[in-house]
Specification:
Layout lengths: L4 E4 L5 E4 L8 H14 L1 E4 L6 H9 L2 E4 L6 E2 L2 E8 L24 E8 L7 E4 L1 H6 L3 H7 L3 E5 L12 E5 L1 E3 L6 E3 L7 E4 L4 H15 L5 E4 L6 E5 L5 E3 L9 E9 L4
Parallel strand pairs: 2-3
Antiparallel strand pairs: 1-2, 3-15, 4-17, 5-6, 6-17, 7-15, 7-17, 8-14, 8-16, 9-10, 9-13, 11-12
């Protein structure tokens, strides 16, 4: 593995320079897994690669998966398009985890910059380790061992498709060993085990507000050639569509990670 430079962001994420995704070896993949487990988000700069190389890179981390209802990239059925082109109003986005309504959600998500707007269009990430570590002790005690029911919203599913799944509120990361709060946007978190509906709504709202404070958020301004990859087990993410001027097109890939990695 060639020499790389790692710049750690606060409160979450790291930029990795000196590594090309079309020329990674096993050692580089292992190192990126470690950085993702510890810092949640990896920004890979100056990546002059196409979708073929992007898919090949993601496949080094596990099996690619696709969220039903998304728009696939032409010629690359494992990728979907994230775009504001042709819209009469800006897309809406809130902090969330990708496809958390299935029993085995994607471990990693990655975005490749294709067309960037003249201004705006940042992507935001939260540190779910820090969110857990700063949670009031009484909240930890009240929610320890409980599960959240995540449901699908805003996607067209067929009968028989997975549309709901339970996941622990607090999850220990298999690589870092640290504990993170695992939740999505409140509209997708409809129940907490052994809590009344009212108490569950209050708990989810509190957790969501606690996780998404400004001091727990990293805002990434995109540059040409950026690829961003993150670990859904320890971050939330959202796009900021306010003030975007010009087309914004990204290609997204989802990876089901291997057990324990």
């Amino acid at each position: 593995m060639s020499e790389i430079e790692i710049v750690v962001h606060e409160p979450v994420g790291a930029t990795v320079r000196g590594l090309s995704v079309d020329d990674v070896d096993d050692a580089a993949v292992t190192r990126l897994r470690e950085i993702l487990a510890q810092h949640g988000v990896v920004v890979l700069t100056e990546q002059d690669v196409d979708d073929v190389a992007f898919v090949a890179f993601l496949a080094r981390f596990g099996e690619l998966t696709f969220t039903k209802g998304e728009t696939p990239v032409g010629g690359q059925p494992d990728l979907n398009v994230v775009s504001n082109v042709g819209r009469t109003s800006p897309p809406r986005s809130s902090f969330h985890i990708d496809t958390s309504y299935v029993r085995q959600p994607p471990t990693f998500t990655a975005l490749r910059s294709v067309v960037l707007p003249e201004c705006g269009g940042e992507t935001l990430f939260t540190n779910q380790y820090r969110a857990f570590e700063t949670l009031p002790p009484e909240r930890v005690a009240a929610l320890e061992g409980r599960t959240l029911t995540h449901v699908a919203t805003g996607v067209d599913l067929d009968e028989g498709d997975e549309s709901a799944a339970e996941h622990p509120v607090f999850q220990q990361h298999p690589v870092s060993g640290r504990t993170a709060i695992y939740l999505s946007t409140p509209q997708r978190c409809v129940a907490v085990s052994d809590l009344s509906d009212e108490d569950a709504r209050e708990a989810v709202a509190f957790l969501y507000d606690h996780c998404t404070t400004d001091d727990n958020t990293y805002r990434h301004a995109w540059s040409p050639g950026d690829i961003i990859m993150w670990d859904n087990r320890c971050v939330l993410h959202k796009a900021d569509h306010a003030g975007v001027e010009g087309p914004r097109v990204l290609h997204r890939g989802l990876v089901i990670g291997r057990p324990g990695l």
